[in-house]
Design brief:
With 384 residues, the protein is α+β, with helices and mostly antiparallel strands. Helices cover 36% and strands 24% of the residues. Strand 15 and strand 16 form a beta hairpin.
Length: 384
Amino acid sequence: MATLTYRMEILSPLHIGSGQEYSAFDGVFLNGRWYLIDLEKVIEQSKEDPTNLANAMMQRDFSWAGWLQRRNINPEQVARHSTPCLQNPGNTRIRACIRDPFWRPYIPGSTLKGAIRTAILEELVAQANRHQRQQWARRITQRDDKGRTPDRRYVGRNVLERDLLIGRAPDKANESNYDLLRALHVGDSEPIDPDRVQIGLIWVHTLRNNQLVQKRVNGEEYKIFAEWLPSGVQAQVAIRLDEQLLTQYSTRLGFNDAQVKAIRDFAAVCNARAKAVMESEQSFYQDYGLPRIAQFYQGLSRQLQSVESKSGFMLNIGWGGGWEVKTVTNPLTEDLDEEYWDIRRTYSLGRRDSNAFPKTRRLAYEGNQPVAPLGWVALYPEEV
């Protein structure tokens, strides 16, 4: 197997969640940092009766800031750890990032491989003729014998993957053994210094009166805070391509020439997809009134050229990338208007009369201004 070590550089705030969220009861903001409170340290430092503390925390107006201040306790004395926080999250929940057992953040190999998988799937969809794409699009909206559509989170991805990424698996065989991506092994990144993590604001923007604005419904603000890795953070990742599987076993597994070529050329395939997304998103933000984000994508496109010149590739990974990044519906339904609208109707994906779809985006903030989309990374092969 040929193994390459890549230097991965984060280009825009990256959040990969652990599934855990912190509330105002879990920590306190002070002087640009957010402190995760350790209750055992609180009790030890304050000598407070645990029952009295529990009762205090049940009060509607409880806050760690006031409780600690009244007892002359610095949050540093009772925190499990603290994180730079760009602004006070108040009562807004904070999404925690994934970490290893030693509390160090890292990038899971499965996250990187999933993004590569999507790029390869899109490449194979784009190579199909109009009739084949039409058949897939129609199968995507088929209901089962109980009248249910497939999970809307995947929007027919299972149909496309079974036809394009799975070889010729015998009846009742485990399809994962015939998966094209078996030939690509992506390791977890090396651990990243915990001090590089920040907590930042992410706000959903939506189209209103032909402009992108912060989403608010009935007084509710569609925003969250999240632990993210900022641009500039770097880590090494190992990627291995199993050439033996692709040469000696591809016929037995049922892989065709187009599939083998796509996975061998995965870096170029990823770059082609990244370029298409960048062009689409730059146009979207320019058209709907956020030129600063459009300029971000313009700069990202220039950086892609540099990445390609060094045999590297770019991906969008993690949480918050949005519809364009997570699905391949757009290339699937190119010049198939009726099938495209049928997919949207089946999965309740916006009104047909809407000017743009999707009409929402998640954006990272600095202060009161959106500054970047989420999750762009570049990977450069290291010289051996």
